[in-house]
Amino acid sequence: MRLRLGFILVLLVILSGCAAPAADGRIRVVATIGPIGDIVQALAGERVALRTMLGPGIDPHTYVATESDLFALQEARLILYNGLHLEAGLSRVFTAINRSGRIPAIAVAEAVPEALRLRWAEGDKVYDPHVWHDPQRWRYAVEAVRDALIAVDPAGSAIYRQRSDQYLAELQTLDAELRALIGQIPPERRILVTAHDAFQYFGQAYGLRVEAVQGISTASEASAADIRALTELVVANRIPAIFVETSVSPRTIEAVQNAARAAGHEVRVGGELYSDSLGDPDGPAGTYFGMMRHNMQTIVAALAPAGLD
Q1: Residue 5: what pLDDT?
Q2: Which pairing describes strands 241-245 and 268-273: parallel, antiparallel, or unpaired?
Q3: Three-class DSSP category at 270
Q4: What local confidence, expressed as pLDDT, does residue 219 receive?
Q5: Of 80, 138, 186, 217, which sits with the fewest C-beta atoms within 10 Å of its C-beta?
């Protein structure tokens, strides 16, 4: 299926001319995930017609482009995706687009220096793609989006630079807020257990040990051994709360909860975290900053002593 869609897109790109602007003259931009779309919206505003392909609750690890996605990509003047193998089902599509040379497709997370990336596995050359969970690393993606917008719309250069400076300053403020919040959790309670391994950057940034049922990609199924090992960790450390994710089925976390209960330890589901997508556009987690605050507030409410004792 992926090969067929990629082949269709190659034909569309080769047979099409230059991407046309939207009917109102705005530049068409496609972003794959919400955190990238949030940057584009903040920096470009009404200068672009933005389409974010993956909405709330959609898992980018297993997503395959629809026919409407393919036409949107073909009509775009600029495509911005995360990269680092996050959008695994779309990687051949973006490779084909870049080879055609007609539409720039930029992997913004790959702007993060290799020294600041976390490896998928020890000694592996593949990197964890979830870099947006650390605002200090995500600044490189903001700069990559800014530069890409300037390249396709030089007339907006001053706007993009001014707004990116503001966004970067807000990332610094956010980072300070999150560091203050994590201080409410005693070090011995800073163990974050989630459905899949999306929070290692978050954990490294804010001093949390992160454990998950599934690996970095949700394409790999959790085994009974994975659930058993995580249950043993939860019970041994008397972890008070574990977390489900909005883009991942809750069944594996519920399995850990049930197994811990059978072992004599009651652990509750501390709430939903946004791992691979933002929340509803009209909700408090509908922006990058809102999503990050929601996640930290949810974690602190569940793990800090005042939230439980």
Answers
A1: 52
A2: parallel
A3: strand
A4: 61
A5: 186
Euclidean distance between CA atoms 152 and 254, whole angstroms: 47
Whole-angstrom Cα distance, residue 243 to residue 14?
45
d(CA 265, CA 235): 6
Identify the DSSP state of 144: H
Short-list 105, 174, 178, 170, CA closest to 144 = 105
**C-alpha angle 303-308-309 in degrees, rounded to nearest 5:** 125
For residue 10, what pLDDT is reported?
A: 52
Say whether 162 sits in a helix, a strand or coil.
helix
Say which residue, 67 or 9, is predicted with more confidence: 67
pTM over 0.85: yes
- Token pair 């297993």 is found at 62
Q: Residue 98 and residue 6: Cα distance in Å, rounded?
A: 12
Alpha-carbon span 199 to 216, nearest angstrom:
9
- Kindly report, residue by residue over 135-162, the tens digit of the pLDDT: 999 999 999 999 999 999 999 999 999 9
- Contacts with 95 (C-beta within 8 Å, 6 or more apart), sequence order: none
For residue 7, the model assigns a pLDDT of: 53
CB-neighbour burial class of residue 145 (10 A; exposed 0-12, middle 13-18, buried 19+): buried
Burial of 161 (0-12, 13-18, 19+ CB in 10 A): middle
